[in-house]
Amino acid sequence: MTSGSNRTLLTTVEGPKGTAELFEANDGGPQPSYEVVCGGETQTFKSMGEAYITAGELVGTKT
After folding, report:
1. Which of 5, 20, 24, 56 could form a disulfide with 63 if both were Cys (CB 3.0 to 4.6 A apart)?
2. Which of 1 and 18 is assigned the larger pLDDT?
3. Number of neighbouring beta carbons within 10 Å of residue 7
4. Rama region for 10: left / alpha / beta (φ>0; ψ in -120 to 50; rest)
5. Which of 58, 63, 62 is nearest to 18 (CA)?
6. Partners of 38 in the β-ladder
7. How far is CA 32 from CA 3, 19, 23, 36, in A?
8. Does residue 2 surpass a pLDDT of 50?
C-alpha cells in the first residue's frame, strides 16, 4: 500500500481462486495509483486497466 495514501475501493473481483479488491490510491500527487489486494498481498499499478486485468488473473476469472 502506498504510504500515507487515501484509498477508495473501486470493485471486488471474485473467481475460483478467491477474491481480489481493486482500490484507487491517492497520495496527493497528480495521478492516482491503483492497488490490487489479493491473498494478503498488495500490488500497485499506474493504470486501472492493468490493475483490473491482474485482479482477474489472480482469482482465475477473465476481466
Report:
1. 56
2. 18
3. 19
4. alpha
5. 58
6. 20, 41
7. 13, 23, 10, 13
8. no
Distance CA 11, CA 39 (A): 16
Q: Which residues of 15-37 are buried (b: 16+ CB within 10 A; e: fewer)?
A: beeeebbbbbbeeeeeebbbbbb
Can you give the length of the chain in residues?
63
- Take residue 1 and report the three cell numbers written for it: 500500500
Name the amino acid, one letter, at 41. Answer: E
pLDDT digits (tens, 9 = 90+) for 7-33: 999 999 999 999 999 999 998 888 999
Give residue 4's pLDDT: 56
Q: What is the DSSP string of 3-60?
A: TT-EEEEEEEEEETTEEEEEEEEE-SSSS-EEEEEETTEEEEESSHHHHHHHHHHHHT
